[in-house]
Predict the structure of Pseudouridine synthase.
Amino acid sequence: MRFFSLQAKLETKALKAKRPGFTDDRYNETSYYIENALRKVYPYYFTFTTFTKGRWVGERILDVFAREFRAHPAEEYERCIRAGTLTVNYEKVPTDYKLKHNDLLANVVHRHEVPVTCHPITIVHLDEDVVVVNKPASIPVHPCGRYRHNTVVFILAKEYNLKNLRTIHRLDRLTSGLLLFGRSPKKARQMEHQIRNRLVQKEYICRVEGEFPEGIIECKEPIEVVSYKIGVCKVSAKGKDCVTIFQKLGYNGLTSIVLCKPKTGRMHQIRVHLQYLGYPVVNDPLYNHEVFGPMKGKGGDLGGKTDEDLVKDLIHIHNAENWLGMDGDSDLSMFNSRKGDLEDSLEVLEPKGDDESDQLSREPSPCDENCENNTSVPCESTPHPLHCRSDREKVTVATQTGHEAPDLSFNPDKMTVDKHCYECKVRYRDPKPQDLVMYLHAWKYKGPGWDYETELPEWARVDWIDSDPLG
């Protein structure tokens, strides 16, 4: 057994040494299809691994899974252990096996990913050192939580053949805009150093509730991370220094377009500062919510809630991954999603009918009336700056990188079903368009000797009015 523990350690170290790249067999685990203006992933088998935590040592493996990983009842984990799909150091063990230090737990699951928008990732700049893209809202930067293939790094690798990219900075899942990757370790370290030492000027555009004040508004309130597990922050005297400069660019009678210049790089900085000022991002599902109290966090007023109460209420109200969009690994997602979270999700679960007519339509639908979604080219919006802009030639994967987009039509032969998979037994209602976008966009980044800028989304026009403000 000691040999397998050592082998597991070596394999894990070898895997980490290869980061941030993945082998081709990882990219080939599954593929995409477009349905109802969404990029979807065919379910596939995946092995989650984790080393035994200190508090688990000496406990029975079945007891640990029944308590720590609530995706399934204890009976299901017992079945997996007996079947050998849930192993220790890649070996089958009895259900009363007591965990030891450095044991590697591996759980083979039939994985279902969350849909994202079918809007394409477009290239802003590409050379031998860096890749700069315009990230659509709803797509996480890298694998996290319930997202793996539906992430920027996997899509760039699988469809653009841009592999082994180094993440220079990150954007929240629902935030769109400028995203930089290094193609060499040296360049990535250089640009990371520039950002870390505040040598990079960043400009974001957002749409906030109400009429934002005139002039230059500087917010210097410190920000504290309330919970890394679910990714939520607040203004707090115990937080780290934080500075954001805001300037109103226009007001349409209901909402304001605001230019944001973060001088520091704290988690959710712009969103938290806008919440504190009383002008939250219009459709921010986290910081524009009464879960922060009657004032929704304005002026730091959380309605008397403790941090523990806030986190508890947030998890209770919405699925921790789909709603909060966790951007990092956590216990909540290590071994599949928790059944309780699935049931509380914004995405309504419906029983899967036996009748073929009860299945979701496989007909692709356009993102909007100006967007043609065929089976070979992902659909695309027409972005433009604050005021009108003439139409541009459609930009596709092929025009940017010379790699033709794959066939993204639905293929029923690729739709695997596992009789023991909980998620195969339920059906998710597709998220609505308003669930896939937040009105916050990374517009411009400028550093020593370089600067990049994206086109702006439609909602960034000063005179733009939300046609369906209530969703």
About this structure: The chain has a mean pLDDT of 80. The longest helix spans residues 2-18.
